[in-house]
Design brief:
By secondary structure, this protein is of the alpha/beta class. It has a single domain, classed as P-loop containing nucleotide triphosphate hydrolases (Rossmann fold, 3-Layer(aba) Sandwich), CATH 3.40.50.300. It contains 10 helices and 8 strands. An 8-stranded mixed beta sheet has the order 3-4-2-5-1-6-7-8, with helices on both faces. The radius of gyration is 18 Å and the shape is globular.
């Protein structure tokens, strides 16, 4: 099973990238599970006809206090979306109350108890994880052994790269669990941005840029329509072509070709490069 984790700061486009990757893999005939690990719980919207599904935390409050966990099965937690993709969203507490990272940890504990990712169940697992906080809960896919290939979505903006540098630190910390940094995806806000700076950043961190994703009106149109992913709605647009290329590149990445990341400390990061 390919375990792909898409990290990135909030608003960087990671959920759009993750959902479209899941759709591409499913369209190619693979059995896919898509796991949203963001309190916004909207990673799966484009995979389930525009609906916000009941989150794990909501189900936990509704089911787990009434039924013994031993009586539960994967279908009690998962929602089947279009293209046969199994979907789940961790969810989280109301804003300002509780820890969203704990919700992710609880969901992954349930995955282990119910053996949801048992051998042969899926060909590909796509995890969509918020990456602009340092809370250990958001590193749970790495810490608990659910992660394998880490892909970080960045832009040319400083804070996007700062978040990516921090995520690389987490990958380095949990490298002994078998996780590795497959590369960066550059989702540029300005098509004329300095790509050489991004290339320098990737080299300093010890990785590479897998794909430059073009700005494309089809993405905005699909997000507002909400009923399908971009690759389904506009398969010939530049974004869709780029994501199909990215999907193939991610599968082709081999662990032995990916060194342990070499992230900068904060002084080095702000020192200029």
């Amino acid at each position: 099973m390919e375990k792909i984790v898409i990290f990135g700061k909030g608003g960087i486009g990671k959920s759009t990238v993750a959902a479209n990757l899941s759709a591409i893999y499913a369209l190619s005939g693979k059995k896919v599970i898509h796991v949203g690990c963001d309190p916004k719980h909207d990673s799966t919207v484009g995979l389930v006809d525009g609906a916000l599904i009941e989150t794990f935390m909501e189900k936990h409050a509704r089911i787990f206090g009434v039924r013994d966990r031993q009586s539960l099965g994967p279908r009690d937690l998962l929602v089947q979306g279009r293209l046969g993709i199994d979907c789940i969203e961790a969810g989280g507490p109301e804003p300002g109350v509780g820890c969203a990272g704990r919700g992710i940890s609880m969901m992954l504990e349930a995955f282990q108890d119910l053996d949801i990712l048992k051998a042969g169940a899926y060909d590909v697992g796509v995890f969509d994880v918020l990456g602009d906080v340092v809370c250990g809960g958001f590193a749970a896919p790495l810490r608990k052994g659910f992660a394998e290939k880490i892909v970080i979505v960045v832009s040319e903006e400083l804070m996007a790269l700062y978040a990516a540098n921090n995520i690389a630190k987490s990958v380095r910390t949990y490298a002994s669990n078998g996780v590795y940094l497959a590369g960066l995806v550059a989702n540029l806000k300005d098509g004329k941005a300095d790509r050489k700076r991004l290339e320098r950043f990737a080299k300093l961190v010890g990785t590479k840029i897998l794909e430059y994703v073009p700005r494309d009106l089809a993405v905005r149109e699909a997000e507002f329509a909400r009923e399908k992913t971009v690759v389904e709605r506009s398969p010939k647009c530049p974004f869709s072509k780029s994501l199909r290329s990215l999907a193939a590149k991610i599968l082709a990445v081999k662990k032995e070709k990916c060194p342990i990341p070499t992230p900068m400390n904060d002084k080095q990061f702000y020192g200029g490069w």
